[in-house]
User: Fold these one by one.
Assistant:
Number 1:
Amino acid sequence: MDAEGAAAPVAPTCSHLDLIKLRHGWLLAPVALVALSIAVLQVRRDALRTILDRIEEGAGRPRLKLPIFSEAMVAAAFHLLRQFLPLDNHCLARSIAISRMLRRFGHHATLVIGVQLPIAAHCWVQCEDWLMADRVDRIAAFEPILAR
């Protein structure tokens, strides 16, 4: 259980980054860029609880009934953006944007925040046991404290 009382996320066993084909990312890259820009502004402006509540509100009403855009395509779009934008220090904004896109496309995404001692934090998105924008070894050292 995390601080919010939700069940802990499933431990990830694989990553879309290991199977990514960048050509699949071009179609969604402009949408991903807009989503990321909005998320960066919200992280700077709003409280984390407010942002997470908005994500939860939008989770119940996907914009597309069928997942036309796969999880892999969303992961590829954000990986493609990483080639051009320095996103390494923006894991929260990136994870918010990925989570929103996946949920709008009808996927069940979990945004996870983890901590590592002495003091480090990281945020990632997973769909069941699949990581969207991180590799398994990158997040293995982090203990999840919040999953939504």
Number 2:
Amino acid sequence: MNQADKKQQTKEKILEAALEFIKKEGFEAVTIRKIADLSATNISLVNYYFGSKENLLSEAIEVILNGFQHTFSILDNTAIPPQDRLKQFLFDYLQVIRQYPELLSRIIAMGSTPFTSQQEYGRFLSIMGFPKVQGTIKELTGEEQPERLLAMMLQLFGAIFLPALMSPILESGAVAKVPSIEEQLNLFFERYFDQK
């Protein structure tokens, strides 16, 4: 293995450790020291490869967001009925969110200094993601007005993602059993896209 391969392998090892830590402990608990320990490296190496905690988090978020992007491809498969495509997209999207529960709240509350990867993902959504979702909603409803399609998409995301954000609070603090994602999706589609 040459020097460049070793460097890349070390950087990937640190990034994988950060992803695993984020999955278990969340973004706020990340420190350079914890990631160095988990990756069996040292603080100097983490700083060498990433420069700062913010850069490390930005790259970790980019990896996570790339996982979201593949979920949009189901919306291109016109052999599947539009309602089934949209349901599958939402289910797959929520599966990624379940792996990183803090991510959705972090994206929603980007704050005044969003990570570069979040900005890139926002561009992806506006260029490719949202038009695919809106196109599928258009197929389902026949709606033509762009403003109404946007409103419908936002309602859809709100109805599906808010429960995902609130589930930990409701299940622990309020001791309420939150229906499964499948149940939530089925109920939503029965109410919103009833094909009578």
Number 3:
Amino acid sequence: MPYYYFDSTALIKRYSMERGTRIVNKLMVKRGKVAIVPTWTVTDVYSILCARAQEGQITRDDCYSVLYKFEIESKQGLYQFIAPKMETYLATKELVLEYPSLRSPQVMHLALALELKPLRLTVVSADTQLLAASKTAGLHIINPAED
């Protein structure tokens, strides 16, 4: 069973036609896959889509339609949401020391992904810094933007 850990840079590609959308959609339809999403990514997706509407990249109606699609797919169980625990936050100290160039959200993603490492998951992200650290830490990676 394939396990995929999505950050917002990858997940947004499910709801926006851009470079990497094809790869993300291909992963989403794999039989038996589990798409793992950190809980704070919900807010990231809302923020990204609303910012795109504010900037005129998409219409307000398109923004609402995409938000609705995301919420429906979430309720239908397409995603398995995971929240950090206190141990996750404590693990970030070692990660910050080991990867000082990572920003806080990147460190949190890495910490959560490492907690799930026994699942032999794949980190799916367009964030090249996060992917490099994930690979160094022994995680499998996919950059959908390299499509």
Number 4:
Amino acid sequence: MSNFKELRTQNISHGVIASTFEDQQATIDLTSPALTVINNFTQKTPIRAQYDTPISEALKQVLAEHSDYVLVTDDAQKLIGIVSSADLQSAKITAIAQRLNTSRNEVSLRYIMTPTSQLNGVSMQSLSYASIGDALQTMEHQGSMFLLATTTNNEICGLISARQIAKTLHIPVHITPIAHTFSDVLESVEHPH
């Protein structure tokens, strides 16, 4: 034990028990850093499923992992879209199943995903200076429930979810999806968000 040194001790006869760290967590609001609500893929691997995965199977994954979304990939594991947990349980799946003349359980992610072509990304560098309110404003302006985070090499390294912000801050979020095709316009008339 000669490699170690004795620590200096102090009298604790008048000591008070410290509060737990949970009691002292800072409250999060719209002015808090955007990075406090990011789902960073370098720290936690997100749920992924191929485009032909049935809705029922993806929903089981989402519920088991307590996730708000599924990243949809192609055969080469390239990201091609995102499906929210709300979309996996929405009434529009029944309409899609009827249109495809199949059962609800056989509808795959490809039919309900938001394709990456309709999503936007913001660099992690920009997000490091942004507030949660800035991210939410961007999502509202883009009509998207998700904001992807990118590296300097344009790799997707995370995302911010409007639903997660709403849950965390206990605030309503009203994002109106922007129709990108005539089919989207018809669908929004048939099934308003």
